[in-house]
TrEMBL record:
InterPro entries: ADH-like_C, ADH-like_N, ADH_Zn_CS, ER, GroES-like_sf, L-Threonine_3-DHase, NAD(P)-bd_dom_sf, Zn_alcohol_dh. It comes from the Archaea. It is found in: Cytoplasm. Its cofactor is Zn(2+). NCBIfam families: PRK05396.1, tdh. This is L-threonine 3-dehydrogenase. Residues 16-345 form the Enoyl reductase (ER) domain. GO terms for molecular function: L-threonine 3-dehydrogenase activity. PROSITE patterns: ADH_ZINC (PS00059). Keywords: Cytoplasm, Metal-binding, NAD, Oxidoreductase, Zinc. It comes from Pyrococcus kukulkanii. Zn(2+) 1 binds at residues 42, 67-68.
Length: 348
């Protein structure tokens, strides 16, 4: 193994990133070193690349980017047990403390001391990467690296879709970005029908149909609520899954969900949102879930088994696969333009 490696690094507190050559890191106590086989871009990486307000408040350059990964363990640090050189792994991004009130209640996804690797530490957009041993997830060889790297965002989609009963339920999904597209795949694999998707981008509405959406709506040109009512004989949908972070979509979904229906909210809104709570939530007796991260480790088992079942139609979602990191600027610009589903860097 060479002592140097290539990495995509946020080198400066400004727009963009650089492809740099750095030392291959050594795993410390409780850490493993992996050779990266595949890694994929998350919307959060785009925020860091664009250097938006949130990124400026959280990221401390210089720092290697990226947090979605599949790789092979090449070195194990002192004190690590149960992980061997050669293991094929992915990683949970939330580094949790195990000591806080949330962790002690088993609610690790809302650990009050969460650190996120690739956000608060060096990440995985590199030939090799350090992963805390407590965050390592072992993959079966049957899951190819380009799927295995998507397990982390698939976990967000699984927690959103499967927060309540879904088989045989009518569903509205607002937002068919990478996460909404994964949500469509999970909903269809889980027996939902019809799955109605509201998405302003034609490119992404077409992707939604390829993934299995039964109906697609352009919210900028059609009346979402009317379309949903027409499709559901005036009843509304049983389940509303919000993946856009658009306040208008939230309001439309709350109007379109049937009384006593279920709502899962994953999308992050640009700021405070004004909602008619009395008429859209309380008098409709809705069950509303806030979704963040992944339940550890239950969600990872669900994601892995869904992938192994072969029922998740995620091939159309992987719209761009790059060999190595050389075209990383093109990848980020295409993502920024909304012209992608998931973008994967293959390093095998
Ligand atoms: N809660 C959590 O743990 C996490 C939340 N997120 C959030 O989930 C959301 C989805 O993530 P990505 O797919 O990566 O985001 P994205 O920004 O790529 O996709 C959002 C989609 O919503 C669409 N959209 C915009 N306005 C709309 C409207 N009025 N109606 C319907 N669709 C509309 C956009 O065209 C876009 O395709 C984002 O807000 C992201 O910040 C992402 C990761 C974790
Ligand atoms: C911050 C992230 O983007 C990450 N995917 C998460 O689930 O927290
Ligand atoms: Zn992410
Ligand atoms: Zn904790």
């Amino acid at each position: 193994m060479s002592e140097k490696m290539v990495a995509i690094m946020k080198t400066k507190p400004e727009y963009g990133a650089e492809l740099v050559e750095v030392d291959v890191p050594k795993p410390g106590p409780g850490e493993v070193l992996i050779k990266v086989l595949a890694t994929s871009i998350c919307g959060t990486d785009l925020h860091i690349y664009e250097w938006n307000e949130w990124a400026q408040s959280r990221i401390k350059p210089p720092q290697i980017m990226g947090h979605e990964v599949a790789g092979e363990v090449v070195e194990v640090g002192p004190g690590v047990e149960g992980i061997e050189v050669g293991d094929y792994v992915s990683a949970e991004t939330h580094i949790v403390c195990g000591k806080c009130y949330a962790c002690r209640r088993g609610q690790y996804h809302v650990c009050q001391n969460t650190k996120i690797f690739g956000v608060d530490t060096d990440g995985v957009f590199a030939e090799y990467a350090i992963i805390p041993a407590q965050n390592v997830w072992k993959n079966p060889k049957s899951i190819p690296p380009e799927y295995a790297t998507l397990q982390e965002p698939l976990g967000n989609a699984v927690d959103t879709v499967l927060a309540g009963p879904i088989a045989g339920k009518s569903v509205l999904i607002t937002g068919a970005g990478p996460l909404g597209l994964l949500g469509i795949a999970v909903a269809k694999a889980s027996g939902a029908y019809p799955v109605i998707v509201s998405e302003p981008s034609e490119f992404r509405r077409n992707l939604a149909k390829k993934v299995g959406a039964d109906y697609v709506i352009n919210p900028f040109e059609e009346d979402v609520v009317k379309e949903v009512m027409d499709i559901t004989d005036g009843n509304g949908v049983d389940v509303f899954l919000e993946f856009s972070g658009a306040p208008k979509a939230l309001e439309q979904g709350l109007q379109a969900v049937t009384p006593a229906g279920r709502v899962s909210l994953l999308g992050l809104f640009p700021g405070k949102v004004s909602i008619d709570f009395n008429n859209l939530i309380i008098f409709k007796a809705l069950t509303v879930y806030g979704i963040t991260g992944r339940h550890l480790w239950e969600t990872w088992y669900t994601v892995s088994r869904l992938l192994q079942s072969g029922k998740l139609n995620i091939d159309p979602i992987i719209t761009h696969k790059y060999k190595g990191f050389d075209k990383y600027e093109e990848a980020f610009e295409l993502m920024r333009a909304g012209k992608t589903g998931k973008v994967v860097f293959m390093l095998k």
